Amino acid sequence: MPSTAPPTGLALEPGIPICQTDLPLDWYSEALRPYAEEYLALPDRTPESVLPWLDRYVLPAQEHFGDTLLLLAHFYMGGEIVKLVERYGGAVADSYALALQAARHPEKRVIVESAVHFMAEAVAILAADDQQVWITNPKAGCTMEMLAKDHMVFPVADQLEERYGDELLVVAYMNTSGRLKSLAGRTGGAVCTSSNAHKVVAWARAQNKKILFVPDQHLGRNTADKLGMDLERLVTLPDPARHGAGYTLDDGTIEGGTDALDAAEMILWGSYCGVHTVFTEAMVEYWKERDWRVLVHPESPLEVVRAAHGSGSTHYLWQAVLQAPAGSRLVIGTEGHFVRNAQAAGASRGVQIMHLADVPDEGFGASGCGCATMSRNDPPHLAGTLDLLRRGEAPDLHRVLPGDSVDEASGARDRLSEAERAELVGHAKLSLERMIAITEGP
Ligand code: SF4
């Protein structure tokens, strides 16, 4: 077992269907469709029928690749993939620990990730030449990252570089493409995660830089608040869902105009995560009034984070679940599959866990949802990818190379030339290595 987080200890429950959200057949690439057809034809898709079917494909692949194969999954995975990946000896972690896997395990040559594209790409950026990274479903993207594609961010970053020159430094949240991580590296900046964003931003501030924080405006704002920065000196760029690419930074597009931009200490790209922005301060107050302890992820809006008892990364939230004393009551504001797994982990120790948005009062009108794009990694994708890899027939669509720009609707990739990729890796690696040094340094 690679050294990431300790195993979650979550077990598949007999008689309970494994995959809650079956994808329609046309969601599978042509090569994967036969596996999906077999899977959907299983009588009930409980562990009793799914596990022997999965074993038929996963075990021969494990035997074929031996110790060189590494399976990875993120905590947010739905459809019980977390439990399945652990069952086959793989590692489950947050995005920071996942990114380090190739570099920390040079003996692993074939790395297969059940997660979204930016996570697999971060592994690929830090991988050695003899390590291959594959994703089980190339259509699994992150909506926050999809609102910060390079063709959207680069024209704005160009204008900022023109205006501020070397004063500008880009901090790229892990939920970005390799192309944006490369931009961070080229401007002297670094990558950050939700667990170390405060350290990375503090490091950038110590250099008296003007920071462009991409892509999550909420994590950027919460980080500024945590560091005691003057929030008046933050500028949030327009909502990319409405403005897309190609706007000019002027008094018409920037709230407060270019004067505010010039005075800003940090400029926030306008992206966000739909899963975390449904949370409201009223939800937090509802649970607090009833003596529940409320913990949220910092991709939530500022007023939610301020009202909660605590906030932190998925690792922080998972530790809080594991360490909660018996009889305690926790409300968690983050992705729905994570909360469901937390409920299962807490139940065995008498810890009650609720999802922040699952307020039992119709007036609130929202419910806790899972990350729909992550859930696109399901058992047929895992079985099919491993089987095709063993047979040497895995479609190139599933291969993850640094700099690939993915069209999440089709899974197709716009791939850089080798020379372009080498340049990108140089800068992107630097931005990740700076994060590691800032996080793990003295
Ligand atoms: S939960 Fe939100 S930020 Fe995380 S991968 Fe899904 S869409 Fe992206």
Any overview of this molecule?
There is one protein chain. This protein is an alpha/beta fold and 442 residues long. It folds into 3 domains: 25-142 and 374-411, NadA-like (Rossmann fold, 3-Layer(aba) Sandwich); 145-270, Rossmann fold, CATH 3.40.50; 281-364, Rossmann fold. The protein has 19 helices and 15 strands. The two termini are 28 Å apart. Bound molecules: iron/sulfur cluster (SF4). Iron/sulfur cluster is lined by residues 76, 116, 142-144, 175, 273, 275, 299, 335, 371, 373-374. Iron/sulfur cluster binds at residues 76, 116, 142-144, 175, 273, 275, 299, 335, 371, 373-374.
Features:
single chain; 442 residues; alpha/beta; Rossmann fold; 3 domains; five-stranded parallel sheet; four-stranded parallel sheet; 19 helices; binds iron/sulfur cluster
Secondary-structure topology with pairs:
Blueprint: H1 33-40, H2 47-65, E1 69-74, H3 81-87, E2 91-93, H4 95-99, H5 101-104, E3 110-114, H6 117-125, E4 132-135, H7 143-146, H8 150-164, E5 168-173, H9 178-186, E6 190-192, H10 197-205, E7 210-214, H11 217-226, E8 234-236, H12 240-243, H13 257-263, E9 266-268, H14 281-289, E10 293-296, H15 302-307, E11 310-311, H16 314-323, E12 329-333, H17 336-347, E13 352-355, H18 379-390, E14 405-406, E15 413-414, H19 418-440
Helix pairs in contact: 1-18, 2-18, 9-19, 16-17
The chain binds iron/sulfur cluster.
The site of iron/sulfur cluster has 13 residues, from helix 7.
